[in-house]
Amino acid sequence: MREATSISELRSALRRQGIWGTRAERLLQEWADHVHETAAQQVADGATLEAADQAAWQALGVPRVLAAGAARELVRSSWLGRHPWLAGLCLPLAGWLLVMTIAVFAAVTMAESASRPACTALEITMHWVPWLVGCAWLAWLVRRMPGGWKLYWISAVVLVLLTTSMIWQIKPPTHGPGTLAQGPRLALVTTLGGIPGAILNKLGTLFHLWERIEPANDRTVYFSNPSTVIPWIQIALSTVGMIGVHRWSRSSARPDQWRPA
Amino acid sequence: MKAKEHLLDGVPELLILRLLAAHEMYGYQLVSEIQRRSAGALEFGEGCIYPILHRLLEQHMLLERAEEVRGRTRRYYRLSDAGLKRLAVLETKWQQATATVAACGMEVRHA
C-alpha cells in the first residue's frame, strides 16, 4: 500500500516535470527496487517491516526533488539539452531563412520559364518539406527535453490563433524589373474575427493535408504561411518553454541533493 | 549556498565512475558503497543516483545488463571506454581543483 502510494507520488512528480513513458517507468522500477533492498537490509538488521519500509522511502528522497533531478539529468544527457538556444532557436531560424531564400529564388527562376505544373510541384514541395523537417525537428526536441508534449500543444494553439490567416506570397517580376513582390499578407482583423472558426478549422497542424492551393494566376507561387513557418516557430516557442522548465528544475532540484553532512 | 552547490557539481558523477571502474554494480550497491566509503560525509537522497546513471548511460559512458532477482529486474552498470576517458578527465580536473585550493591555503597560512 505504501509502495503504491509512493510510486504514484513519484509518477505524478515526474509527469509534472514532463517525464513519462518508458523513461519514467524505468526510473520508478529502479527506485522501487532500491527501496525494496534498503527495507530488506533494515529488516535483516532487526527493524520492523513497517518501520523499515517507511525509513527506506524517506531515504530515497523527496519526490519533487527526485523528479526535478531527473529532469535536470535528462537535459544534461543530450547535445540539444546542453545547447538549447542553438538547437531550438538559432538553427531553426537559420533553417527557416535558408528555406525561404531557396523558395524565393526557385519561384523567381521558375516563373520566367517554367510551366504551371512545375510551379505547382514547387508549391507542394515547399508546403511539405519544411513542414515535415520542422515536425521531425520538433518531435526530436520534445522527446529529448522535459516539458514535453504539453508545451508543444500550448505553443501550437497560440500559433494557430496568431498566424492562421497569414499568407506568404511571392509575385515574380512579370511586369519588368523591380516588380518582384514577396512577403506575408497579414489578415489579423480577419483572424481575430474568425478565431472560433480558425480553432475549429485549423486545430493542430495536420489541417495542411486538406488545404487546397489555388493560385491567382499561372505564374504566381503561393506559400501558405503555416506550412512554412509554424513548425519552426513552434520549435522556438517550445524551446523557450522547455528552457524555462529546465532552469526551474535546476533551481528547485539542486539544493536538497548532494551536500556535505 | 550557491558556492556549495557548485562545489559538489561534478562529485556524484566522479564517485559513480570511480566506483564502477573497479567492478560492475547496481544502484543500491553504488549508494551503499558511497555511504560506506564517505563515512557519512555526504548527504543525498538515495534516489538521485539513478537519473545520473541514466544520463551516463545515454552518453554511452556506461554499459548495462539486466538480471531477474526475486521477481524484480535488477540493472547492473559498468564503465565503457568512453566512461574511462571521462573518468580520467574528471580526476585530472578534481586534482587541479584540490591542488589549487591547497596552494591557496598554504599562502594564507604563511602570510
H/E element sequence of chain B? HHEHEHEEH
Beta-strand residue percentage of chain A = 5-15%
User: Major sheet of chain B, described briefly?
Assistant: 3 strands, antiparallel
DSSP helix count of chain B? 5
How would you describe this structure to a colleague?
The complex is a heterodimer of chains A (261) and B (111). Chain A is 71% helix and 6% strand. Chain A has helices at residues 2-16, 22-44, 49-60, 63-76, 79-82, 84-113, 116-144, 148-163, 188-193, 195-201, 225-253; strands at 167-171, 181-185, 221-224, 259-260. A 3-stranded antiparallel sheet of chain A has the order 2-1-3. The longest helix of chain A is centred in the middle third of the chain and has 30 residues, at 84-113. Chain A starts with a helix and ends with a strand. In chain B, 63% of the residues lie in helices and 18% in strands. The two termini of chain B are 28 Å apart. In chain B, helix 2 packs across helix 5 (81-110). Chain B is globular and about 60 Å long. Chain B is an alpha+beta fold and 111 residues long. Chain B contains 5 helices and 4 strands. In chain B, 27% of the residues are buried.
Main features:
heterodimer, A: mainly alpha, 11 helices, 4 strands, 71% helix, B: 111 residues, alpha+beta, 5 helices, globular
